[in-house]
Each structure stands twice: as C-alpha cells, then as structure tokens.
Design brief:
Blueprint lengths: L2 H7 L7 H46 L5
C-alpha cells in the first residue's frame, strides 16, 4: 500500500491540528536558521565597513592632503 495513503487514512492529514502545529514549528525553525546565517553575514559586512571608515577617518586626520 502507498505510504501517503496510509498516513492520510490514519488521520494524520493536513487537517489535523497537531500536523499543522508541527508544520508551523518546522517553518519557524527554518526561518530562525536562515536568519542566523543572514545576520552572521550582515555583522561581518558591518564590521568591515566600520574598519574601513575608521581607517579613512584616521587617514583624513593625519594626512589631510591625501583625501
């Protein structure tokens, strides 16, 4: 017998509240994992930008004719 048919006949179809809750929790987990990766990259970009701006500021202070 088909596995999908067996699951649907057992009452674990998409209309079951527990199945919907599990789907919601899994979706939230995926959003959190993707968000962590995106924030990790964003923090690196912010750090790099802060260092570059700091170096430009120092250069403009000590080498005013350069910029």
């Amino acid at each position: 017998m088909n596995v999908v048919a067996t699951v649907l006949q057992s009452g674990l179809g998409p209309e079951n509240p527990l199945v919907q809750l599990l789907g919601l929790v899994v979706a939230i987990g995926l959003v959190i994992v993707v968000g962590r990766v995106v924030l990790k990259v964003a923090w690196r970009l912010v750090t790099i930008a802060a260092v570059i701006i700091g170096l430009v500021l120092l250069a403009s202070m000590f080498l005013p004719g350069l910029l």
